[in-house]
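EI: anyone free to look at a 297-residue chain?
SC: sure, send it
EI:
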Amino acid sequence: MNKPIRKAILPVAGLGTRFLPATKAVPKEMLTIVDRPIIQYVVDEARAAGIEHIVFVTGRNKQVIEDHFDMAYELEDTLKARNKTAALELLEKHRPVPGATSFTRQQAPLGLGHAIWCARDIIGNEPFAILLPDVIIKSQVSCLKQMVDLYQNTGGNIIAVEEVPEDQTDQYGIVELDGELGANAHKISNMVEKPSPGTAPSNLMITGRYILQPEIFDLLSNQGKGAGGEIQLTDSMLALMKEQHFASLKFEGRSYDCGNKAGFLSANIAFGMDDPKLARELVPFMEEIIRKPLAAE
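SC: here you go
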């Protein structure tokens, strides 16, 4: 029996410089997709996969994330007094139960690998998930739930992947495959960071969802700085791959990289179109915009 995936790490210490000045006072994870912060979509995905405890690795000026997942007494008392039952139920639906979240500071911008390492004592000696909060995934079944289902059969380490145009492989981490494990699942033999078009081992990019074994923490403890002068998670995963099984899952759904403006706006449109009332208002406007010529660069 494989140990269950009970805990997940969400690294939320980034500065969000691509969204300045909006992120000067508001964390990028709290920017909204329709009516929910980006971080809420990611937490909902984790909870739908059966995650019991979420560890947020934060930085300075991220207190509002902790507040978002706490009770808001004044607001809730006001809603009760005004008999706003639907709004109260919505707040309760998205609030984790007491003790189901932890917050720890990264303290220094030393990379994703360092952020994950900062959660080592809270995770302990058990497998865990990582969800990068810049990425939200629109799917019928939670992407992480799809990964957990595969993990229950294979164990080891799981990485979510998605097809990318072959002329864009130099923008992503790409996996190299070595044999099938089932529908949309393969063994991974290597990971290559931003390979030039024509040299990539596949067209499957790493999407920002991982299930990893706790041995990764020892590797991160001794991991030197890599690309960009940061401690890279990929470097430790490659080291772990020499000892443990890694698998890819081509998940059913679509990811939106909300760490860039185009992905953020695309996600707002995609999720907004799920609301029939909003869709009726959006479609005529989008048709009008599409008919206009593109502004000169």
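EI: The two ends are 57 Å apart (CA to CA).
SC: 👍
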